[in-house]
């Protein structure tokens, strides 16, 4: 992927087609009070997906020319990838966190959204995802991001961050965890450092 440039939503919208393609993805999360093995607080449930190419990413995709808005395009993609429960999601302009451009291999404006749900809403998405049009095709399945670090200092978030992510999804995840303070900053930095040390 080429070097990315950060933009405001307004700046990004000025980059029109056919020169630029717009893609929208969303981090869906919910407070999750549980504890792994009764010891490690889960804090939040964050959904990501295993893509058709074996990489991890967030739900969403390219906005079609016939989509009236970025959010309408994102809504259509969420319905295709997450199934019928996605109809209840109302991702709005206020949920837009960032936009960045990349010119290689093609000119893309990547819009990133964050949406908090209740744990019940998130679980409904998980349960109905197998009914989605793209399940088993573009999307191999949903998964939750482990926000804890096990006693060995590697298991959990540090190990998760060593996976292969599409585009800048890894950076979007880390930025979101920090911005929303879903993981204490010191613990997040240790996880990132540990992931960078692993082969």
Q: Overview of this structure, please?
A:
The protein has 199 residues and is α+β, with helices and mostly antiparallel strands. 28% of the residues lie in helices and 29% in strands. It has six helices and eight strands, in the order E-H-E-E-E-E-H-E-E-H-E-H-H-H. It has helices at residues 9-13, 70-82, 119-128, 157-160, 169-179, 185-197; strands at residues 5-7, 21-36, 40-51, 56-57, 60-62, 96-102, 108-116, 139-144. Strands 1, 2, 3, 4, 5, 6, 7 and 8 form an eight-stranded mixed beta sheet that branches. It is globular.
Secondary-structure element pattern, one letter each: EHEEEEHEEHEHHH
Largest sheet: 8 strands, mixed
- Mean pLDDT across residues: 91
Q: Using DSSP, what is the number of strands?
A: 8
Supply Rg: 17 Å
Number of helices: 6
Query: How much strand content do the residues show?
Result: 25-35%
Shape annotation: globular
C-alpha end-to-end distance = 21 Å
User: Unreliable segments (pLDDT under 50, ≥5 consecutive)?
Assistant: none
Structural class: alpha+beta
């Amino acid at each position: 992927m080429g070097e990315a440039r950060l933009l405001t939503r307004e700046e990004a919208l000025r980059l029109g087609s056919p020169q630029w393609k717009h893609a929208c993805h969303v981090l869906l999360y919910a407070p999750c009070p549980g504890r792994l093995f009764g010891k490690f607080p889960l804090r939040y449930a964050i959904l990501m997906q295993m893509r058709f190419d074996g990489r991890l990413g967030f739900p969403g995709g390219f906005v079609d020319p016939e989509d009236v808005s970025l959010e309408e395009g994102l809504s259509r993609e969420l319905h295709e990838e997450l199934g019928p429960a996605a109809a209840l999601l109302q991702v709005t302009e206020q949920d837009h966190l960032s936009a960045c451009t990349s010119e290689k291999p093609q000119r893309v404006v990547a819009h990133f959204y964050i949406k908090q749900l209740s744990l019940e809403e998130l679980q409904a998405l998980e349960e109905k995802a197998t009914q989605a049009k793209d399940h088993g095709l573009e999307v191999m399945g949903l998964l939750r991001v482990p926000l804890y670090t096990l006693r060995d200092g590697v298991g959990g978030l540090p190990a998760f961050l060593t996976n292969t992510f599409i585009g800048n999804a890894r950076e979007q995840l880390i930025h979101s965890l920090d911005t929303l303070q879903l993981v204490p900053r010191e613990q997040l930095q240790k996880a990132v450092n540990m992931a960078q040390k692993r082969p």
